């Protein structure tokens, strides 16, 4: 192939890709409420056997995935561990911590193409509840945008993970705050879908009639009604922990949340 032909093919391919992302994908999102594609990994990374075994033993979400999607999930776990630093405060970071924290975040963002959010770069872990210098109180977890950090009490993170039917999951709760902030500011395809569906979800917090329906069933704990940020986080905890109950009691709200994070039932 001559240089001239190579250049023509190269720029033709580049133009086609630009056309897809500038014209075709926005139209696709408008029609189907999801990005044109989510997973594409030319050089997929696999987990070590010991890491995979933690997912098999302790992560029902992973076990429900198809073989192909398990491969995608493992690749993302590798990428999460490579991109975010785990810092132990009076506690040693273990492989189990890495996998469970990564898995929780990736469960929440598995339907999104751009999942490596830059609003945080480290996760600080304490053995149990810790004293926060931000508001001079003891916390179980928090998202600190200025420090670009998420902070967890490992005791409470693990309790939330192991107890999977009480709709209280510290990991999901704090990661939901990060995702919320990201999607309010970003214009990537997944964030656009999230924001549009979020506007429907938040009506159940702000609209008196819809809000009355939620409080009537007494399904969501009272903390959900503190503000719109807590409302979203609590709703996402319920979405993953007791999805069948959620879908039965509030089917329309459940559908909006599924669209918001592009969730796919296996």
From TrEMBL:
<dbReference type="GO" id="GO:0005829">
    <property type="term" value="C:cytosol"/>
</dbReference>
<dbReference type="InterPro" id="IPR042252">
    <property type="entry name" value="MtfA_N"/>
</dbReference>
<dbReference type="GO" id="GO:0004177">
    <property type="term" value="F:aminopeptidase activity"/>
</dbReference>
<dbReference type="Pfam" id="PF06167">
    <property type="entry name" value="Peptidase_M90"/>
</dbReference>
<protein>
    <recommendedName>
        <fullName>Zinc-dependent peptidase</fullName>
    </recommendedName>
</protein>
<dbReference type="InterPro" id="IPR010384">
    <property type="entry name" value="MtfA_fam"/>
</dbReference>
């Amino acid at each position: 192939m001559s240089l001239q032909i190579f250049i023509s093919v190269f720029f033709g391919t580049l133009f086609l890709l630009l056309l897809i992302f500038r014209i075709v994908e926005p139209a696709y999102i408008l029609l189907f409420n999801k990005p044109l594609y989510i997973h594409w990994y030319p050089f997929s990374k696999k987990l070590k056997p010991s890491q995979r075994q933690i997912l098999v033993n302790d992560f029902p979400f992973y076990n429900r995935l198809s073989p192909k999607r398990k491969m995608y999930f493992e690749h993302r776990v590798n990428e999460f561990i490579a991109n975010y630093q785990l810092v132990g405060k009076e506690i040693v970071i273990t492989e189990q911590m890495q996998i469970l924290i990564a898995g929780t975040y990736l469960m929440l963002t598995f339907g999104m193409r751009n999942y490596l959010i830059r609003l945080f770069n480290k996760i600080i872990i304490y053995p149990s509840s810790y004293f926060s210098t931000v508001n001079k109180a003891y916390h179980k977890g928090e998202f600190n945008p200025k420090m670009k950090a998420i902070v967890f009490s490992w005791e409470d993170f693990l309790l939330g993970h192991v107890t999977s039917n009480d709709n209280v999951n510290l990991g999901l709760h704090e990661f939901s705050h990060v995702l919320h902030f990201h999607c309010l500011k970003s214009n990537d395809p997944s964030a656009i879908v999230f924001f549009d569906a979020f506007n429907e979800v938040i009506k159940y917090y702000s609209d008196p009639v819809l809000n009355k329906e939620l409080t009537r069933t007494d399904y969501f704990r009272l903390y959900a009604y503190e503000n719109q940020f807590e409302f979203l986080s609590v709703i996402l905890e319920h979405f993953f922990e007791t999805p069948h109950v959620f879908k039965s009691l509030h089917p329309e709200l459940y559908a909006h949340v599924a669209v918001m994070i592009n969730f796919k039932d296996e």
